[in-house]
Design brief:
The chain has about 525 residues and is of the alpha/beta class. Helices cover about 35% and strands about 20% of the residues. The chain is elongated.
Amino acid sequence: MPNYTVIPKEFKEAYYAKFTNIDKDKIAELAKEDPVIFAYYFLGKKLRLHQAYIIDRILYSNNKRVAMCLSRQLGKSIFFAIFSIWAAWYNKFPATIQKITTIYIISRDDDASMELLDKIRGVLRDGNVEMDKYYGKDDFFTGSMREPNNTHQITFLNNCPIKSIPPTEKILGKSASIVFIDEAHNLNCDDPDKFFNKAVVPTTAETGGKIILSSTPNGIVGFFYDAIDPDNKKENNVYESIWFSHKVWDDGTIECKRYQEFIEGERQRMGAEGKIKLFQQEYEASFVATETAFFEHSDVDNGLDDTPQKYEYKDSPCTLGIDYGMKFSRTVLTIRTMIKDKIIQLFQYRCPAGFDINQLINPDWEHSIQRLKKRYNLFMILPDDCPQGDGTNRWLEQNSGVQVKAYNFRSDQMSKTDGVNRNCAAYSYRAKLKEGILKIPKWNTVQQFEMKIVQETVQKVLISIKSPTGHLCDTFDSDMMASIPFLDMQSNYDFEVDNLEEDKKEERSSNDDGFRVISDEEMKEIIKNEDYERLAF
């Protein structure tokens, strides 16, 4: 259960008293010291209890930094608009040699930052309407501005500015009284952590100013996640951490009831769509990795093929994908080929748990590499580049007589030589399945099941594609590796085909090592025309 922030009873009582037990003759004086009163009597806005509590923490916390993890539509933009207007209007945080309050606001991107500034202008216009009731002046706030006054900046007559800044290093070298980052966990920049630490943090170093972060969660990494510290791992967090789900708004008003009805509707809708993790993230403000099925079940079903399993096949070039198992996962061997523009699975063997992978190079074992070479027209072997397969892979490279390309599919990192990782291959594999080019055999019910449970887990930095906890996807991994040469992931992909037939060595242009290099375009033409004689197998 998330450790949500609880608003103290004493604060609630003090909050409600601000709208009932107040000396009307002291409103101007009280508004200068209290943003809640300022909002109510000057801007015509009644801050909700949770909004008022956040402002209280910004003002009176011992921490100069405040991080707020909030459900969607709790009014974080409005409360900050009110707070920033109050701070700049009264010059509450003077800093630098100019002794002015300088406020920078940052959001997901430049457009979002400007949109946030425009919301501040909207609150000022509402303030004009409220103050016109008492002063007969319809530009009480907007008439109290000076240049620069544009889409990126508001400047009051006391020279205090509110500026919108994109999440780039444009803010470098500036000094601020307050930096507010909206959508802090969703910044649209190359490296949000680097931007925050290199560009944002220094802005308040000299001024002793405040850094305020606000966002819905997006995964379980990043500077915002560290600031909230949802698991309370830090003994001395430099942030005042505030954490509210949608349930924090429970004042019984009509607006509140409509909001909660909307939330319940979203819960049902997103649950029916299999997006309950996303609901938890957006409205329960939970730090979860969002998970969705990687393959649409209909795509797997539509991709089923009647081609029977072929114990032996020599009519077209074949690939072998090897996924090595460990204690619980399985070692799987998969043979793929191209038949009439379709990527067809000819054979798959799922080894028993605890299988001794040394059997793979034992010529007496039924499905050893030596025997598979005799049964299929192999031109490439694609094994998993993992510690348990290291010895077998080295043997393959030295003794198989077939080109070997190992891939590390237990990592989300790019291959150093090919620029391909598990995700690259998986997305290409899925695309070919959806196009109807890659086929799944009807006889392979185990792989059909594993493909239907594979999940795409979206975190802040990584997208992980794997089976859910407690399940395996070894047949899919093996099949994906076998499919790589046919997936068109690389425009300059070359196939090296070994010629082992002595009587044909003189008929082909060959290297000293006995390999002929065939370009990608030539291979596509060979497969399309089924002109396999050109491979001289």
